[in-house]
Design a protein that fits this description.
- By secondary structure, the chain is mostly helical.
- It contains two helices and two strands, in the order ααββ.
- A hairpin with a 5-residue loop joins β1 and β2.
- α1 runs antiparallel to α2 (about 85-100).
């Protein structure tokens, strides 16, 4: 009788061990898939946030620079036709735009390669 009880107990323990191993493997597989899904979702969200930040940055600064160009173009041509007049009439405007937007420098490039800058020290010559 002891032998039968021992055999049944041993068989039951082996079945329980096998069931626990199978349950552990299945649980590991599902947890791994769920964790991978959540990591991919989180990384995708990080990329979306970064993309939106870059778009917002670009649109804000593009709008700001368009406003600057419109302000300069509203000046009469005779106030912009020489480099000296251009510096005299737009210098304060360039400095103001630089300070308001926290830019390192704001400049106007001329066709001859000369720059009219808000801060000459901010432009590094190559």
């Amino acid at each position: 009788m002891k032998s039968i009880k021992l055999k049944i107990s041993l068989i039951a323990n082996v079945i329980a061990i096998i069931c626990l191993i199978v349950l552990g493997i299945i649980s590991f597989i599902f947890t791994k898939k769920a964790l991978n899904h959540e990591v991919v979702k989180a990384e995708t969200n990080y990329v979306k946030v970064a993309e939106k930040s870059m778009r917002d940055f670009k649109s804000l600064h593009t709008h700001s620079l368009e406003q600057l160009s419109q302000a300069i173009l509203r000046l009469p041509y005779n106030e912009l036709n020489t480099q000296e007049k251009l510096m005299e009439n737009t210098g304060d405007l360039l400095k103001t735009v630089r300070d308001i937007n926290s830019y390192l420098a704001v400049y106007i490039a001329q066709s001859n390669g000369e720059l009219i800058v808000s801060d000459p020290d901010a432009i590094v010559k190559a």
